[in-house]
Amino acid sequence: MPYDWIIDALEETWDSIDRLVRPQPPEAYDALTACPGWSVRDVVSHLLGFEAMLGGAPVPTFEGPWPDYVRNPIGELNEAFVQAHRSEPGIVVLDQFRDVSRRSLAALRALDDEAWEKVGWSPEGERPYYRFQETRVLDSWIHLQDIRDALLE
């Protein structure tokens, strides 16, 4: 299938995040990343939340004022996911991310070419689904680097 590379890239990146973070001590999840206001836990929460949303889960309600670094509707979505998991132990968030990413990969593997090419919503506007998933690859890989930098790996 012409889109297998996208699935493989997501799986490799998400597995790399899991392998990097899983052996870390609990306090490592609080290490600050280059993403304004976000720790390692928060980055994993963002990835978890976005994949859960794509799988049909509702976006959590954000409580309180938006932080200064939230400047658009996508930032609001992301921050709602982060806030929803901020008080959970990091390993719990990572386990949830592992579960949701496995479901996402299975759903992607089940798509036919027509579904991959269907135009629909993406954070960048209306795009074919494969373009949206290419962006997911890039976003996930960049966040892997954010986590590596925060953990000095």
Radius of gyration: 15 Å
Instruction: State the helicity in percent bands.
Output: 55-70%
Low-confidence stretches: none
Number of helices: 6
What is the strand arrangement across the widest sheet?
1-2
Shape: globular
* Intertermini distance: 34 Å
Can you summarize the main beta sheet? 2 strands, antiparallel
Structural class: mainly alpha
Order of helices and strands: HHHHHEEH
Q: How many strands?
A: 2
Descriptive overview:
The protein is mainly α. It is 61% helix and 3% strand. It is built from six helices and two strands; from the N terminus they run H-H-H-H-H-E-E-H. The protein has helices at 4-21, 40-54, 73-85, 90-109, 113-117, 129-151; strands at residues 119-120, 127-128. It has a two-stranded antiparallel sheet with strand order 1-2. The longest helix has 23 residues, at 129-151. The model has no long low-confidence stretch (mean pLDDT 97).
